[in-house]
Design a protein that fits this description.
With 124 residues, this protein is an all-alpha fold. 80% of the residues lie in helices and 0% in strands.
Length: 124
Amino acid sequence: MENERYLRGLEKLKEIDGHAGENVIESLRDIAPDFARLLIEFPFGDIYSRPGLDLKSREIAVVAALTALGNAAPQLKVHIHGALNVGCTQQEIIEVIMQMAVYAGFPCALNGLFAAKEVFAQRK
């Protein structure tokens, strides 16, 4: 059942990730449909839809967090695409990832830079 949170989240997801986000949700439907619904409702329907930050700022924060984790390359690539979709430049993304070397270490920053390089090449 598509409630208000779900519909709001789906629209926000489309605004950020276009079809890439929809593909992630669709890939979960046969194994964890409830998780797919939660992934739309909570992050995108509740958090991304809050008025305190614009989407560009939110995506910069997500790119930084996923880079710092160091073990989320697939999600980082999706959010690098999303950051570009909402107005970040390639240089801003590179700078955010490089900043993470100070707090998360050079290996995390290197992995993030390689993920960004891959995304930038795909978008050319």
